[in-house]
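Rotation project, supervised by the postdoc (A.L.). Task for the rotation student: set up a whole-complex structure prediction and record inputs and outputs verbatim in this book. Inputs entered:
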Amino acid sequence: MAEYKKTLNLPKTKFPMKANLAQREPETLKRWEQMDLYGKLCAQGRGRPKFILHDGPPYANGEIHIGHAVNKILKDIIVKSKWLSGFDAPYVPGWDCHGLPIELQVEKKVGKVGRKVDAKGFRDACRDYAARQVKKQSKDFQRLGVLGDWKDPYLTMDYQFEADIIRAFGKVVSNGHVDQGCKPVYWCTDCQSALAEAEVEYADRTSPAIDVRFRVLEPEALLSRCHHVEGKTGSGEISVVIWTTTPWTLPANQAVAVNPEFEYALVQCRQDGHDERLLLASAMLKDSMGRYGIDDYQVVAYCPGQALEGMKLAHPFYQREVPVILGEHVTQEAGTGAVHTAPGHGQEDYVVGSRYGLPVDNPVGADGRFLEGTELFAGESVFTANDKVIETLQARGALVHHQAVTHSYPHCWRHKQTPIIFRATPQWFISMAKNSLRQTAMAAVDKVEWMPDWGKARIQGMVENRPDWCVSRQRTWGVPITLFVHKQTGALHPRTPELVEQVAQAVEKQGIDAWFELRTEDLLGDEAADYDKISDTLDVWFDSGVTYEAVLRRREGLTFPADLYLEGSDQHRGWFQSSLLTSCANYGHAPYNAVLTHGFTVDKDGKKMSKSEGNVVAPQDVTKTYGADILRLWVAATDYRTEMRVSDEIIKRIADAYRRIRNTAKYLLSNLSDFDPQQHLLEPGAMLPLDRWAVATAYRLQQQVLAAYERYEFHTLYHRIHNFCSVEMGGFYLDIIKDRQYTMPQDSAGRRSAQTAIYHIVSAMACWLAPVLSFTADEIWRYLPGERKESVLLAEWYTQLFDLDEQEEMNFAFWQQVIEVRDAFLKEMEKLRNQEQAGSSLAVDADLYCGQEIYQQLQKLGDELRFILISASARVLRDTDKTPGAVHYTLSTNDELWISLRPSPHRKCERCWHFREDVGTDATHPDLCGRCVQNIDGAGEARCYA
RNA sequence: GACCUAUAGCUCAACUGGUUAGAGCAUUGCGCUGAUAACGCAAGGGUUGCGGGUUCGACUCCCGCUAGGUACACCA
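Outputs recorded:
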């Protein structure tokens, strides 16, 4: 009996069930590299419509983490799907190479500039360090299967790139957007440099909160402006009380601000036997007195804030008069309603101070210590100075109250622990107001497509409110601000655009050292004596903010603006904005047509990943244990618009899903071992209706898959494909066609029909999977019979699928009903199994008693319904003849059906395993059914439908 | 204070508010042994984060709370 097995056409393939991705993927990568896959794609893309996804540069420092992987894989999925959609979609990856983090790393090795190394040597070391980081990260990105121009990525430290940054900045200057000013900027005392908004992080910090007296110098003048309570004036000194959490800024105090709209109260206090009068906002009175622990007080007069303007006060510890000024920024949320104002140490103070022409005094040095000559505090660090200021106030009788307060305070994002101070220094700014940059940017934002749409509101809010962009840094490893300013007037050199271009050309040849080594007279000749050469570097956010300039506008085959920028949602304040501002300044529009953002990666409980929590999932680990395709599938399966959860379990589930998809592909391929599309492919019209249904189902799925790629909704596409493998294929179609595949003559129409369907389906499927499971899809592709391109990534979506017409007798609705009938049959089967009356359904006879409509439908299949049920027999009968034991089912179409099953009384055919009455009727094959006899010795059976 | 998120153990559905909230995976039981470190069938599993409200009707709209995430802020 075993001999009949040889007469079957069993599945056969070398396509391995076990993926072994960790080993196989690197081999595939090697092959792609050898065949120059990316080069071939570009060559073949010539003349096609463009799709340009511009890569945001990761910082060239450290190992890539899961967030990097998510970002690059999402980009890769999009780019590949665009190639498959017939676009020319070149992808140029890049790195951000200048800046402080690299300096810090290099300092650890070679020390600070000026000690063991000079600036030039230090920059060389930085360049070297960055190059090594890029190399390492590049390798890791490529290992993930990300396809792009890895041979020629963009680096912001390339000479050409550095020159383009200089040119771009020169253009921003020429367009009149740049200001030099002495404004308070975020300052890190560890970096000893100004910071950008993007370099500031907020964290809780405990600070001393103090209330301080500012003595009123002309009490009579004040009293004359007040409304007195019952003619009282009280007695004792009069002081305005301010509240502050930064005592160290008091040396720079230039004024006290009050809100013109508030009412202020003059309060008579008696403490320790002496009288005094305090002036503070009426609304803050109760809280403040409570804080001071003063119960014995009485309001003697009221005064509108407006009337206090110009009053003279004594600085609490310096011999200095400071005025009362008015400011809308004074609130009643905390404090006393009177605000100590130090224009050198705060943005608001600076703004209101400049209205009154107050000096912008900054007694604090770059290292955070008070400058030589600062009375009382010279040499003291501002943070330790707090105590000293408080002591001084105490000694002078100016301290009303002192307590500790915990509040959110800005810190340096590199140094984490280092609190930032506001410090007025001469800096360069891209002004938001000049030449209406803010309005231009707002208008540009409006024209861009933001996905998800709340991204628009977010960036609008930021652009609307952001201060001028401080672009100068006092660092070594950065692109220089290549300007000359007049020593007396501070004006830019009149030939600035020309000079910038000359410098850019030099930098193009020698890198940024060209500027640092340049002597002023080299460029300015006789004028040199009148000009200062700026030694500041540019904020690295400016570097990355002009990547479109050095990449999109510089390289052939790319377009500006880009079709898409895609980064994490944190880049609304970072790259999206820096790119927007420079582009608006120089071109008047955004550098991108659409912006897509993804969320952050969190652990299984939605918590942030951190080393201390031990919940970090490293992409390298996943790749090593499961393979890059598993990581890629996880990215695709997860809705990236919000937080993306990863954990071992989640990855394991994804690996399970992967195996299902892979095994489906394997099974499809295994049924094509003897199929040559050139010879055996059938026309749609020649195929069996069930096979046409299968192709049409794939056709409809493909429409959904393509739509999902189009909308960047990869998780829906993943679910659909996986469902297709499990439900339509595994649970229905593939199970049914086994009989035909195995038992019919090899070259019979029935068998070739199913193979045609399988061929179409697996060909299409390889394409669906290619952007996500690039390695696996490529592998499937190589096992497909017939002529084809070298890699699935060079292909376009499969075009040979077709739909099923509504007019067909066996249309989708028909097959839907058949599936429901089959589901009902399977439920009855299960009962039989539970009663131990049956195992295989091939040993069961089925009687289906049908209502009128469904009877006619099922009749269409004739005897072939049994192949769909995979039963020994299937009789379609009238419900009027139903037996008492038949079980009732109602279909979704409201058709009614009664099913009765019983074990077949007949023998099992040794070949096809069906239990048939005609087993043994042929003397030469006593163990076979009539059908099998025909299939072996005769012309073969005829199949019409399934 | 602002914005986003919260649906079975996991990943996702549920159109503009409309029957009993759906899939797949996982789990459990069963079958098959011609996809076998596979395949098929079936079953259990949800107070849609919590509490209010609007409505004939709420996963869906409104308010509050909780948890988590993110970006920001002139808290002096």
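Student's summary: The CA atoms of residues 690 and 946 of chain A lie 5 Å apart.
Supervisor addendum: DSSP finds 30 helices and 33 strands in chain A.
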